[in-house]
Amino acid sequence: MTDPDRAEDSTDTVAEPPSDDRGYGFPVALWRGLDRHRPPGVTRIQRWRSPLRGLWLTSVFGSVLLVTLPIVIVTGLLSYIAYGPQFGQAIPGDVGFLKLPTFDWPTDPSWLYRLNQGLHVGLGLILIPLVLAKLWSVIPRLFAWPPSRSIAQVIERVSLLMLVGGILFEIVTGVLNIQYDYIFGFSFYTAHYFGAWVFIAGFVVHVAIKLPRMWQGLRSRSMREVMRTSVADTRPDPYEPDGLVSEDPAPATVSRRGALALVGGGTVLIAVLTAGQTLGGWTRHSALLLPRGRTRGDGPNDFQVNRTAFAARIDPKTTGDAWRLTLGGGPTPVVLDRAALSAMPQHTAVLPIACVEGWSTTETWTGVPLRELARLAGVPNPLSARVSSLERGGAFSRATLQANQVAHPDALLALRVNGVDLSPDHGFPARIIVPALPGVHNTKWVAAIAFEAGTT
Ligand SMILES: Nc1nc2c(c(=O)[nH]1)N[C@H]1C(S)=C(S)[C@@H](COP(=O)(O)O)O[C@H]1N2
Ligand SMILES: [Mo]
Q1: Which residues pair with 243 in a beta bridge?
Q2: Per residue in 362-421, pLDDT tens?
Q3: How far, in Å, CA of 436 to CA of 330, rounded?
Q4: Residue with CA at minimum distance from ligand 1 atom 8
Q5: Oxidoreductase molybdopterin-binding domain spans which residues (predicted)?
Q6: Distance from residue 449's CA to the centre of ligand 2 (Å)
Q7: Minimal CB count within 10 Å: which of 18, 139, 283, 426?
Q8: Residue % of the chain over a pLDDT of 90
Q9: How far is 334 from 377, CA to CA, in rounded Å?
Q10: Mean pLDDT lowest for which of 4-13, 53-62, 101-110?
Q11: Reduced to 3 states, what is the DSSP secondary structure of residue 377?
Q12: 401 by DSSP, 3-state: which?
């Protein structure tokens, strides 16, 4: 730094009013330079004038998200584990240092994965209006200029970018997946998994930085007061430099109570339009936001179909009398036709199919327990079972089951559902159905099961 520079700096400091002394950190010249080179659009963006914007409203939205988003995060990570990364069948397979601890996904209660995915997808969708409201409430800060005044603030801004970018990315990829609309060139699961970690990192830093401020905000107004305040009596929060409150707030056109009702109403509307897919029964008719599961079968097979036999290119000739089931892993392969399977002792269990996309359906399945098939194959206590379908190619044509998933008495190779033969779309001649198994691993049109022998 040369003397003239310093001289200029000091003149500036003297010339500027104290309120403009912006508390720059190191390196001062950088932050000051940024401050002076304000991009043209910024001033316009900062002219948001809603008198509702302020620490209280942001803190209310933030506190609800603080409680609910961790549920979405945890159920998302659990779903990845439920897919069985230990068998290389979780997607993405190779996640480097972001590897999660794995454990054998339980088979009890049978509705565990249904609950997990219902929460993940259901809450994820329901929270969209709240996330948008939260973003709306802080929008002047997202475009704050200068973007930073110290290195510590750079970290905060980057975490904010990860948080906002991450959550919008997760919402978009999540919604597109449940709408079956793969418009991207990359795998949805891979994008959603890595996007989640970006979001989680941003979320953790943001919570750590903002928690005291949120607490302060929540206590700045009483909820009861807010609920009693009409539009006419709605006043802005006190102005603070660098805060959320506009320097020149417009008169209120809606009360804080009204804003909360609007956001609450939005979440309820989404809940009504989606919850039916998980809850079932008559509520399913209102699940209009979920195009999946509209293709259904007839009579007892009348429940949603993820992928039809036609779409999976199952040749009807291969599912008729020519069909055979091959049990491998024992001393010699065991080959059975459908009559032989039907002649074995049958077991009936009421079990849900719960798809990663959040929809689920509980039906009454009848077939041969997998552990009986393992015994027949000569592998009484298998470490795992590799199931393959008649379907060729695609991620859904095979699945590996854990030891506990084969051993459970209700884990079936189902031949029938609700008292009749499976329909072609539901996997005739035989399909897998295992308690609490992610839907995708309940392989349809099974052709072979290879049991992996244990050490005993
Ligand atoms: N062979 C095969 N099995 C499959 C599928 C598939 O596409 N092919 N879809 C899976 C998925 S993603 C789900 S959620 C369930 C859906 O079962 P359903 O169509 O009988 O309701 O089947 C699973 N089994
Ligand atoms: Mo699925």
Answers
A1: none
A2: 999 999 999 999 999 999 999 999 999 999 987 789 999 999 999 999 999 999 999 999
A3: 27
A4: 396
A5: 317-452
A6: 20
A7: 18
A8: 67
A9: 6
A10: 4-13
A11: helix
A12: strand
Q: Ligand 1 pocket: which of 396, 412, 417, 433 to mutate (most atoms <8 Å of CB)?
A: 396
- Half-sphere CA count of 78, side-chain side, radius 13 A: 20
Strands 360-369 and 347-354: antiparallel
Of 293, 271, 283, nearest to 354 (Cα)?
293
In the block, residue with structure tokens 């054998």: 104
Predicted structure pTM score: 0.90
Mean predicted confidence (pLDDT) in 241-266: 94
Q: What would the pLDDT profile of 174-219 be if each residue is shown by its tens digit?
A: 988 887 655 555 578 889 999 999 999 999 999 999 999 999 999 9
Q: Return the ligand number nearest the Cα of 361.
A: 1
Q: Tell me if 399 sits within 8 A of 439, measured CB to CB.
A: no
Shortest-distance Cα residue to atom 6 of ligand 1: 396
Side-chain half-sphere exposure of 408, counting CA atoms within 13 A: 24
For 389, list phi and psi in degrees, rounded to 5.
-100, 165
Coil, strand or helix at 217: helix
Q: Separation of 306 CA from ligand 2 center, angstroms?
A: 6
Residues 79/117, Cβ–Cβ less than 8 Å: yes
CATH for 299-452 (3.30.450.150, 3.90.420.10, 3.40.50.720, 3.55.40.20): 3.90.420.10
Q: What is the pLDDT of residue 18?
A: 39
Any residues with CB less than 8 A from the CB of 441 and at least 6 apart, and which? 83, 84, 89, 387, 399, 401, 432, 434
- Span between the terminal Cα atoms of the chain, in Å: 77
Distance 368 CA to ligand 2 centre (A): 23
389 lines ligand 1 (CB under 6 A): yes
CB-count exposure of residue 133 (10 Å: 0-12, 13-18, 19+): buried
* Ligand 1 neighbour 397 (Cβ under 6 A): yes
CATH 3.90.420.10 placement within the chain: 299-452
Specify the ligand 1 atom closest to the Cα of 391. Answer: 1
- Whose Cα sits closest to atom 23 in ligand 1? 440
